């Protein structure tokens, strides 16, 4: 009889723990809203609840989640669509509701080579008008790789732009006379703020905010205005950094990765005067975007940083405290696809884009909702 | 019997010269990267240099691309390029008797240049061997290929002489 009691006790504990583990895992559900995007790159949310989506292949689309209708925005500038180049980030002006301005980054081909460009235009009735080029990176190259291309408005309405190292030009990330491997800060009209960190230096480009980056495809800020950037490492060494003006983030002089050929890029991982990442990944997970979660649908995720990854294709949920990463959870592995973007929507759900590379029109919009909704 | 000895001499000469060429290429890349770090104010201790060279010799074994499901590393890429270069040169020399040192030296030069040319084509202008992104680095890289080709020629003739005469004369 005692044995039966013990068995029942063990059985009950085992299933309770199992139930608890499952309950913990299943606080969310994934809902595919749309399947058929052509290499989506970024998503932003219009005040009316519609999604604004950029496709690397040069199209801007608006998705209405209630009617499940996708509309193409007309009047976009021509874009160099090649390899990693194309239409990239989109960002609404902080005063979008009054000025209807959207900002977008894309690659262009010029006589001097390919480079990154940022423009703004008014979005009215699914059409762009009053188009203005506000930034062209002094980072001309033959390759169509490592553009960076992420945009972020700061609380003072200045705009940060990440400009990648162009792959073949990595050493230039350490010099201030170009935009390879830089984060740039400009005003919303393209002019350069007078208080940029290198505005007094003779040989420096005055719009440079930070330098020593590789291919920064994540740029966000937390509720206190602290800026975070992540960048792809080479073979290993993807980094998450806290961005402060005027600092050198080390690439390629210090790195946690090695070259694709297997050789050393630098035997050094730290140096005085060069910033350390608050987190790095070796092997690389191919960080692609990130967002802080401050919605109310998932109170347990409040203030966590969600980082999307292309390889193997998941999301990393980081808890950050005192500028340090205190825990990392791997989320949404069940999507099992390259995750190109993650954003926190206006209604508190997380929205994920998969890029569907390798199969045309197979990118998805996936919504993360609480399981009990 | 002569053909077997010739074949054996060619194989050994190729393995020797291609290995030396690969090591020189990897070392050139390492030293190029280290030299740039020196210009950035890094203090490069002797052991750091040796450690980096040894790392890159091992690193050459890691796959840089997967072709038809087969991982291909740096050594394999160099060996394949040199093999085709020397093979083509041997055929041309059967038709046109060009000086062997010059022809294999030139073949080595072109073969390693071919590595850069074809990887650029395959990877949209991306250059995987970082030292060859600068013209001087590319020239040194190709000259190493050229020296490898001359080594191949010398090894081949010496090995053949040893095999036929039984001693190195």
* Broad shape of chain A: globular
Cα gyration radius of chain B (Å): 18 Å
In total, how many beta strands of chain B? Answer: 2
Shape of chain B: globular
Q: How many strands in all of chain A?
A: 24
Average predicted local confidence, pLDDT of chain B = 92
Gyration radius over CA of chain A:
22 Å
Distance between the termini of chain A: 45 Å
Strand order of the largest sheet of chain B: 1-2
Helices and strands of chain B, in N-to-C order?
HHEEHHH
Oligomeric composition of the shown chains: heterodimer
Largest sheet of chain B: 2 strands, antiparallel
The low-confidence parts of chain B are none
- Strand order within the widest sheet of chain A? 1-24-23-22
Protein architecture, described:
The complex is a heterodimer of chains A (373) and B (169). With 373 residues, chain A is mostly beta strands. Chain A has helices at 2-25, 96-99, and strands at 28-37, 40-45, 51-55, 59-64, 69-72, 87-92, 101-110, 113-124, 127-136, 148-153, 159-163, 182-186, 208-211, 215-221, 227-232, 238-243, 279-281, 287-292, 305-309, 314-321, 324-331, 339-344, 350-354, 363-370. In chain A, a hairpin with a 5-residue loop joins strand 2 and strand 3 (51-55). The longest helix of chain A has 24 residues, at 2-25. Chain A starts with a helix and ends with a strand. Chain B has a two-stranded antiparallel sheet with strand order 1-2. Chain B has 5 helices and 2 strands; from the N terminus they run H-H-E-E-H-H-H. In chain B, helix 1 crosses helix 2 (46-59) and helix 1 (2-39) runs antiparallel to helix 5. Chain B starts with a helix and ends with a helix. Chain B is globular and about 60 Å long. In chain B, strand 1 and strand 2 form a beta hairpin. Chain B is mainly alpha-helical and 169 residues long. Chain A binds chain B through residues 82-83, 141-145, 167-171, 174, 235, 253, 258-268, 271, and chain B through 26, 29-30, 33-34, 36-37, 40, 42, 48, 51-52, 55-56, 58-62, 64, 73-74, 124-130, 133.
């Amino acid at each position: 009889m005692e044995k039966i009691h013990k068995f029942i006790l063990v059985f009950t504990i085992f299933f309770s723990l199992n139930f608890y583990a499952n309950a913990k895992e299943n606080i969310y559900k994934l809902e595919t809203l749309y399947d058929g995007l052509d290499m989506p790159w970024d998503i932003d949310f219009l005040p009316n609840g519609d999604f604004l989506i950029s496709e690397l292949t040069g199209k801007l689309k608006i998705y209405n989640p209630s009617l499940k209708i996708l509309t193409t925005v007309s009047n976009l500038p021509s874009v160099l669509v090649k390899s990693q180049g194309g239409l990239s980030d989109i960002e609404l002006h902080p005063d979008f509701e009054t000025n209807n301005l959207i900002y977008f980054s894309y690659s262009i081909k010029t006589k001097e080579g390919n480079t990154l460009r940022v423009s703004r235009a008014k979005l009215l009735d699914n059409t762009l008008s009053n188009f203005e080029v506000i930034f062209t990176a002094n980072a001309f190259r033959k390759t169509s790789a490592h553009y960076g291309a992420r945009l972020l408005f700061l609380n003072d309405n200045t705009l940060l732009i990440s400009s990648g190292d162009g792959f073949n030009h990595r050493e230039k990330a350490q010099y201030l006379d170009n935009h390879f491997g830089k984060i740039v800060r400009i005003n919303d009209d393209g002019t350069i703020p007078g208080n940029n960190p290198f505005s007094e230096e003779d040989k420096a480009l005055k719009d440079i905010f930070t330098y020593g980056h590789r291919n920064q495809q994540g740029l966000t800020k937390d509720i206190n205005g602290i800026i975070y950037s992540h960048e792809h490492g080479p073979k290993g060494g993807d980094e998450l950094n806290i961005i402060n003006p005027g600092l050198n983030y080390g690439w390629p002089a210090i790195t946690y990765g090695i070259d694709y050929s297997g050789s050393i890029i630098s035997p050094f991982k730290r140096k005085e005067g060069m910033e350390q990442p608050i987190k790095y990944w070796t092997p690389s997970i191919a960080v692609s975007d990130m967002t802080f979660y401050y919605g109310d649908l998932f109170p347990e995720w409040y203030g966590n940083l969600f980082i999307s990854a292309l390889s193997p294709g998941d999301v990393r949920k980081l808890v950050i405290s005192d500028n340090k990463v205190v825990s990392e959870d791997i989320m949404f592995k069940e999507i099992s696809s390259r995750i190109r973007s993650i954003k926190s929507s206006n209604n508190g759900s997380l929205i994920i884009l998969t890029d569907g590379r390798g199969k045309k029109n197979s990118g998805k919009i996936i919504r993360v909702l609480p399981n009990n909704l | 019997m002569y053909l077997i000895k010739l074949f054996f001499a060619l194989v050994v000469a190729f393995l020797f010269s291609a290995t030396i060429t690969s090591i020189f290429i990897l070392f050139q890349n390492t030293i190029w990267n280290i030299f740039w770090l020196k210009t950035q104010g890094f203090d490069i201790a002797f052991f750091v240099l040796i450690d980096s060279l040894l790392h890159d010799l091992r690193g050459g074994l890691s796959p840089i691309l997967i072709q038809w499901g087969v991982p291909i590393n740096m050594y394999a890429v160099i060996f394949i390029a040199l093999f085709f270069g020397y093979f083509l040169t041997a055929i041309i020399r059967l038709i046109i008797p060009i000086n062997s040192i010059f022809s294999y030296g030139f073949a080595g030069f072109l073969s390693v240049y071919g590595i850069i040319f074809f990887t650029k084509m395959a990877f949209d202008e991306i250059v995987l061997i970082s030292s060859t992104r600068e013209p001087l680095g590319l020239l040194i890289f190709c000259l190493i290929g050229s020296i490898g080709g001359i080594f191949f020629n010398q090894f081949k003739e010496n090995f053949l002489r040893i095999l036929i005469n039984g001693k190195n004369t």
